[in-house]
Amino acid sequence: MDSGDLKIEWARQYMPVLGTIADRFRKDKPFEGMTIGMALHVEAKTANLVKTLAAGGAQVFITGCNPLSTQDDVAQALDRVDGVTCYAKRGCSVDEYYSAMDAVLDAKPDITIDDGMDLIHRMHTSRRDVLTKIIGGCEETTTGIHRLRAMAEEGKLEFPVIAVNDTPMKRFFDNVHGTGESALTAIMATTNNLIAGKWLVVAGFGYCGRGIARKASGLGAKVIVTEVDPRRALEAYMEGYHVMPMNKAAEIGDIFITTTGNKDIINEQHFKLLKDGAILSNAGHFNVEIDGAWLNKNAEQIIERDGIQSYLINGRTIHLLAEGRLVNLAVPKGMGHPIEVMDLSFALQALGTRFIAEHHTELKPGVHAVPDSIDREVASIKLASLGLGIDTLSADQEHYMCSWDVGT
C-alpha cells in the first residue's frame, strides 16, 4: 500500500457509520448503471465516501472543489479504484480547476455531489449539454446552499438538490465540532502559535463560528465575535464572548478567523488597523472573505513560507494563511475535519444520494431538505457503533405529545 492507500485505510477504521452503509450498498446496488459526478475536497475521508458509492454500483468521476485542498497521493489512490476516475490535483491553476470539472461533466453524470456548488453552477452556465440526463444532486456546505437557494428563487435551478448542510446531524457535528477543531488545529500546526491568552476574532456566529468560538475559549483564548445579525450577536454576548464591529476588533485581535460565507469581511480598512504580527485565516468556503487581492496589489509581500504569506503595511507585518482559502484543508498540514465527524456528514451524503436515485421522479427542481428519517438513521447507526442506547416513547407518551386536549 502506498501513502494514499494508507491514509484511506486509516480513515476507514474510524468511519463505522459509512462502513455500515457501504455494506448495505454492496448488497443492494442502489446505483447500478448510474454515473455520479463529484466536486469535493479530495482527501482520505472523501475517498471512503467515493468507495462507498462505487460499492453501490456507481461509476464515479471526481475532482476537487478547492485548488489547495486535494491530497495528491489520495487522488492517485482513488484513481486506481475500480469504477472511479479522479481528476483532482493540488495547486492547480484556475484553468486546470475548471478543465477538471468539465472532465467530470463529460462523463454525463446522473447525480452530482457538490461542495460549494461550482459543479452545479457550471452545468447551468457553460455546460448545459449535461442537463438532459441529470436527475438530481446533493450539496455539502453552507455557501453552496446559499447559492442554490438564490438560483431556486429565480427559477434557474433545473433539478432537485438535497441540502445536506441544513440537516441537524450536519450542523451540530460537522459545522460546530468539525470546523471548530480543524480550523484551530490547522492554525496551530502552521504557525506554532499559542492560542491561550490571545485575542481571537471570529467573524460570523453561525454554526461554524459558534464551534470555533467554543473551542478557542476552551483553549484559553479571549474571543471576540463580529456579526451583522443582532440576534446572533446577542447570543454570542450571552455566551460570554466580546461583541464588536470588525473595525474595532481589527485593532485588538491577534488571530482572525472568518466564517461568514460572504466577501470582504476583512478588507483594506481593516488591514490598516491590524497589530504587528496579526494572523488572518478563513474557515468559510471560498477565498473571498479576506481581500487577498488587495494585499497582493497594494502591500509589500515580504516573505512566503509553507501556508503563510506575510505582508508589510504601514510598518507592520500581517500574515495570511493559505491564501485566504479554507484553512483547515488548504494549509500544507491541514487534514480537514476529524474523521469521526466526516463519517456522519458523508453518511448523510451517501444516503441522500440514494434518496435521489430512488425518489427523483417525486421531486421538483429546487432545494430539498434531507428527510428526517435519514438524519435519525445516521444518528442511530452512530449510537449503535458506540454501544449506546436511548429511551423510546410509550404509545401513551406519543399520544400525549401529539394531543391538544390533554391538560395538566
TrEMBL record:
**Sorted alphabetically, which Gene3D superfamilies does this protein's record hold?**
Adenosylhomocysteinase-like, NAD(P)-binding Rossmann-like Domain
User: SMART domains attached here?
Assistant: AdoHcyase (SM00996), AdoHcyase_NAD (SM00997)
Of the GO CC terms on this record, one is: cytosol
Q: How is the cofactor bound?
A: Binds 1 NAD(+) per subunit.
Please give the superkingdom of this protein's source: Archaea
NAD among keywords: yes
Which positions bind NAD(+)?
Answer: 141-143, 206-211, 227, 283-285, 328, 337
- A Pfam short name: AdoHcyase
Q: Which cofactors, by name?
A: NAD(+)
For this chain's UniProt record, which GO biological process terms are given? one-carbon metabolic process; S-adenosylmethionine cycle
Keywords in alphabetical order, please. Answer: NAD, One-carbon metabolism
Q: EC?
A: 3.13.2.1
Q: Which residues form the S-adenosyl-L-homocysteine hydrolase NAD binding domain?
A: 175-334
Q: GO molecular function: any one?
A: adenosylhomocysteinase activity
Which family does the entry's similarity section mention? Answer: Belongs to the adenosylhomocysteinase family.
Q: Quote the PANTHER family the UniProt record gives.
A: ADENOSYLHOMOCYSTEINASE (PTHR23420:SF0)
Query: What is the protein name stated in its UniProt record?
Result: Adenosylhomocysteinase
Which species does the entry assign this protein to? Answer: Methanospirillum lacunae
